[in-house]
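ok, trying the design again with the full structure, not the truncated one.
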């Protein structure tokens, strides 16, 4: 028996540590540790509630829009204006949030996860005329391999030409990501940390030139998704079919739903499902965060706590472990009977010759994320046409002295919940349950491992010095621990130091 420790896991957002106990060449037990403390809830206390829509975006610069959305939904609820948002405000919220989904998904697949499957250093052998590939070839020819090395030695399987095509898409994705940020800023004002989504709707006026500018960028992004991103994700299934069978995780999926439509419906319906693909309802009253193996007690942070091994808490629904994220959104709505999603998923499974259960896997998560990008660009094309120039996008409201509110939505990485209590016109309590809190959670009071921990169990390790299967599985979840902050004084002095065994 031996132990593999990866600390930190690179090419993820934030600081994640993984410990895997290996016996007879397989992972018998895994521990996922968030190694930084997150304290944004304390920062929000005693402030004007409306500050939440701005400050919570500082949770993460990659996916800040989801936090302003969840905060604004929670404030809508607390202010008693849920359901009163003007159509333009509802649509603009969707367009701004969906733009951030596209940026985040393209970032994850090409610039965080792709190097697990793509040998970009092969471009050094390129003899073609493509200007982008030739510029990278010249870069590599000078021996400047960073930031592509050092890294694990992967089992590269893509044929040379497909590898070069994938490499070109890696480079093109840098430009497309910039386009998504520009598109988001048309209505969001800026990115990161957009300034338009507020309680009551969106502050940006709907003008014809803004609609045209947004739509022009969306067209190019949609073309990239259809011609590069989705085909590249499906290509992984062809050349790495074994990763359609490993990394399945807990097998239970949860989504809060997102993107409000007319008549109170949502583009993504809330609910749950599992490998049996039966849809089940979701009720926020079933949510609970446990701290059995987290560095907290009932009074707050407790570094050095016996049994503790993570700053991440353990969200559970009705005391069960659930995975959240693009795979959950796609398959929950498949189970709920969405005709659009069902037809797209069935077509992909038929094309790859797989059963839908194979999507509960490492490569399955990448496919779901790419499919979601395709679905959203199609929906955004329709939403932009529904905007009414010059019509209002926001309503006024009164700030209550005492109130409670909850905002449930989806971030790129999964289900996101904001809750707050207002007392004497100020925030008394604020709670965030973010997607990676679900997926990277430690064990709970019933000793149930979190989704990433379960996904690593029984995975075969061919070389303990080169555990590529572990990092491929972890990155398929697109973990984001950037919501954490250090235990530091304002002068940067250490408050305490502890050792994780």
């Amino acid at each position: 028996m031996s132990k593999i420790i990866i600390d930190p896991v690179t090419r993820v957002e934030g600081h994640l540590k993984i410990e895997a106990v290996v016996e007879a060449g397989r992972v018998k037990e895994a521990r996922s540790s968030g190694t930084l403390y997150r304290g944004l809830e304390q920062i929000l206390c005693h402030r004007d509630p409306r500050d939440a829509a701005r400050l919570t975006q500082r949770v993460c610069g990659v996916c800040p829009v989801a936090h302003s959305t969840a905060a604004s939904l929670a404030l809508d609820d607390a202010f008693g204006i849920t359901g009163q948002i003007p159509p333009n405000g509802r649509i603009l919220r969707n367009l701004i949030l969906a733009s951030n989904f596209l940026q985040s998904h393209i970032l994850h697949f090409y610039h965080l996860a792709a190097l697990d499957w793509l040998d970009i250093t092969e471009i050094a052998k390129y003899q073609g005329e493509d200007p982008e590939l030739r510029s990278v070839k010249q870069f590599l020819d000078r021996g400047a391999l960073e930031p592509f090395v050092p890294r694990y030695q992967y089992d590269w399987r893509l044929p040379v030409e497909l590898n070069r095509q994938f490499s070109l898409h890696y480079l093109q994705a840098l430009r497309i990501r910039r386009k998504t940020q520009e598109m988001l800023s048309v209505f969001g004002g800026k990115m990161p940390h957009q300034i338009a989504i507020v309680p009551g709707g969106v502050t940006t006026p709907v003008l014809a030139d803004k609609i045209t500018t947004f739509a022009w960028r969306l067209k190019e992004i949609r073309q990239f998704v259809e011609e590069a991103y989705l085909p590249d994700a499906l290509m992984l299934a062809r050349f790495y079919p074994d990763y359609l069978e490993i990394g399945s995780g807990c097998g239970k999926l949860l989504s809060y739903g997102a993107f409000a439509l007319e008549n109170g419906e949502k583009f993504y319906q809330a609910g749950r499902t599992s490998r049996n693909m039966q849809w089940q309802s979701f009720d926020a009253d079933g949510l609970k965060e446990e701290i059995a193996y987290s560095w907290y007690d009932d009074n707050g942070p407790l570094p050095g706590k016996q049994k503790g091994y993570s700053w991440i808490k353990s969200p559970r629904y009705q005391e069960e472990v659930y995975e959240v994220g693009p795979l959950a959104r796609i398959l929950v709505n498949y189970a709920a009977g969405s005709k659009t999603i069902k037809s797209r998923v069935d077509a992909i499974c038929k094309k790859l010759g797989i059963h839908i259960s194979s999507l509960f896997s490492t490569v399955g998560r990448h496919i779901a994320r790419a499919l979601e990008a395709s679905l959203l660009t199609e929906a955004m094309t329709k939403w932009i046409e529904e905007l009414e120039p010059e019509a209002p996008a926001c309503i006024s409201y009164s700030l209550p002295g005492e109130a409670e509110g909850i905002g449930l939505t989806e971030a790129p990485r999964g289900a996101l919940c904001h809750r707050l209590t207002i007392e004497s016109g100020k925030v008394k309590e604020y709670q965030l349950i973010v997607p990676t809190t679900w997926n990277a959670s430690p064990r709970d009071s019933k000793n149930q491992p979190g989704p990433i921990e379960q996904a690593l169990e029984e995975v075969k390790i061919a070389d303990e010095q080169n555990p590529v299967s572990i990092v491929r599985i972890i990155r398929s979840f697109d973990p984001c621990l950037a919501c954490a902050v250090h235990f530091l004084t304002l002068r940067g002095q250490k408050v305490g130091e502890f050792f994780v065994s």
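Keeping the full-length input from now on. The chain has a mean pLDDT of 93.
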